[in-house]
Amino acid sequence: MRGFVWGVVLAAGLAVSGAAFAQSTDGGLREVLPAGVRPVAYDLHLVPDADHLTFKGEVKITVDVAAPSTQVTLNADHLVFDRAIVDGDTAPAAVSLDTKLQRATLAFAKPIGAGRHVLTIAYHGDIGKTTLGFFAMDYDTAAGKRRTLATNFEPASERDFMPSWDEPGLKANFTLTVDAPEALLPVSNMPIASSEKLGGGLARTHFQTSPKMATYLIYFGLGDWERITTEVDGTTVGVVVPRGETEKGRYALGEAAKLLHFYNGWFGTKYPLPKLDLIAAPGEIQGGSMENWGAIFYSGEHLLFDPKFSTESDRQLVFLVVSHEMAHQWFGDLVTMAWWDNLWLNEGFARWMQTKAAVELHPEWRTGLQAMAIYDGGKRADAGAGTHPIVQPVLTAEQADEAFDAITYNKGAAVITMLEAYAGADNFRDGVRRYMKAHAFGNTVDADLWREVQATSGKPILDIERRFTTQAGLPLIHVSEAPSGSGTTIELSTGRFFADGRASEGKATPSWQIPLRVEGARDLLIQSGAEAPEASAHAAPVLVNEGQKTYARVLYTQKDFDGLAARTASFSAIDQLGLLYDAWALGEAGYEPVSNTLEFASALPVDADPIVWRQAVNTLIGIDAAYGDDPRRGAFAAHARRLLKPLAAKIGWDAKPGEDPSISTLRTSLLNALGRFDDAVTIAEARARFAKLLADPSSIDPGQRRTVIAIVARNATATEFDQLAAMVHANPDPLQRQRLLEAMAQVADPVLASRLLDIAIGPDTPAGLAPGLIINVSFSHPDLAWRFMMAHDGKNDIPIDSSTQLRLMPGVASASANPARADELKAWADKRVDPSSQRPVDAAVAAIKSNARFRAERLGPLSDWLAAHPG
Fold it and tell me: Is the peptide bond before 541 cis (omega within 30 degrees of 0)?
């Protein structure tokens, strides 16, 4: 899940020794291995020691050598080489390590001839406690403590596990043999071929050989697990869970079965492996979940569904993440990008496909509406200082890790949505089918896909896609109108939208071709930089981007916005969402009054789609967060209460039989928001129900339980916080602990928030969860969380790996409105982060400045509007 250039990106040349750098199309030098030796197959014998957190390995690598040489260079990091030989020769190679480039060079006494050879490398290493590479995850159970071993490699951590050619374009077959305790269940990409007992409680397990695959998709896991299975289209689908948790895996198993059948048909290429396992981690893993081919590894919350405690939101989350990772089995695993610059071929498509699958299999969720939040997330990232093209130069492993961001995922999904609408759904699917058949088990760049979609649709897909993916930036469509006879003429012009509206001054607009629908079902293809008049038979104002498929924001005159707001009830739910998202973004940036957002939200009818109302609630929370501790916040909170309480009275606290699933998710958001907005009645009711929960946990249904805990945690007294902490400590279930801790991380009291930060790095926190908890605290207490991180910086007492820390520090700081924080972050990064990998830092600095500017420039006019609208 975590799982840019045009043309072929594989390294050129036949050098065998020394460092190799391939030229990227932007002129930079990409760090790739020398091209003279290429892997054909890996045969690994692994012996892990979970008690001592060490492992031994012996890997036999079949390679093709292009020209005679005495040296072979491959990837290895944090590994100790015990012996390396070629073709059984007794003379071992001399090994030199390059820790910066994460490589090992094997120097042999005599040249290796051109042709096929077998390298045999014996080595050993350590098993980590973070959740990247090869690591252990400890957790509590009713029967005592347990330890799971697992791998998580994307983008470039497989080299911590096995010497290899760790690049996505260098696919090879993989065979694994493992010696491990026979009481534990080993899992890898392929089914178990055979197993024999070794004595002393150990067993040797042999797995079948995989098809050609990229190294980052290799998986090995070992744990006190149980596996439940079903058969779908000739494939065994399994869910692997900690012992005793099988009932929590049944929902995911059922949905995975439906998804596999759907994907087999939609992609037109049957899933090619004999089995597909979905494996639950006892906590959180970096990246959330990982699409290892045939052995997808999920953070617990992304796979486990407990009818006793899980909510409707949990149900939909499990489906979306399962569907996302399963889509990768085609986009990413079967067909893999040639290099990390085309990562969006994996992640943008999987994010888009999770919506496509949900619309097909669960239309009652109206996931197409909910996906508007994904697209808006891409637009927000694209409007900020840290934006970059979807197809971007990636030169190093560190930059590859950076590429897993909202541009790759969310903008990627938004652009694909636009292109599918323009090409036509059937044409688009047929293009994807042709692409899968042409490139199965191979590597591609994005033009390979769009060439096929262009062929099936007969439309200029390649040119449109290239302009949106090789250029950064979000189009801004300006709409103006003039009377024309009995109707109206609208004029459309394009610019570029910036999160700081003033940033556009003096900057040229990228050249886009923009598919666009105007109200009245008129489809246009407009060219940026040129005006596009369009006659309209409608009375002004006219809705532009009807259906919200175009990747753009739309700016109306104030007169036209007021007219559209007056027509709010007549618009479709998706257009209501589009207007709401654009109003808030345009107001934040200073293109129009921020009060337009409140005007539009106030015009929503009580019976508007619950998904629209849920976003209205989230927008109000966003405005509230922007106030921080400003004393003018009270007037805004009062307005939010007046707006939301009629809706809360209508849907109530308790679910009704057969109600729309989106009512359930709205109820949670709405009541939590009223708790945040200091509604005394809501907080009192939550506390009363919390008292019942403490006395008898079975007295509260799952959806209500989480809402009650969230409201009480947000407004917690010291006593209530102690009660919640005791619940965490007493409950061994990692997922239930996680839910409690995530609620506590929203606490408003800074003293209690400081306590939560200490708990986050303590023994009661499930593996991998600490970074998320620290980020959650930063939403309400950014400066407190920053000081906490700085106090622990360099001490290695927070269980996170270095790449996560490089994301966490900017993430924590970015919610601040204190300009001094931006200076401190930049000073930290100058000491700790390579200049080529500071884009997240630059984005965070820009966000801090934007937060400060919002308070200085927007709160005054917003307060004036609130004073003028007291009822």
Answer: yes
